[in-house]
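job 3f2a | input accepted
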Amino acid sequence: MTRESYRRIGAVTGLLGGWAMMFGLGYMGLVPAAIFGIIGCVSGAITGEKIHDRG
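job 3f2a | predicted structure (55 res):
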C-alpha cells in the first residue's frame, strides 16, 4: 500500500478513536465532536505515516 493509504486509514481510525474517547469522557455536542475528531484525525494520520515509513 502507498503512504497515502496508510495516512487515510490512520485518519479514519483516529477519527473514530477520538469520537469514542469523547463519548467515554462524557462529552456530547457538535463542538466537542469537532475538537476530538480533529485531534484524532491528525494524530491518526501522523501515526499511519510513521507506520508506513518503518515498514
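job 3f2a | Helices lie at 3-25, 30-54.
job 3f2a | closed
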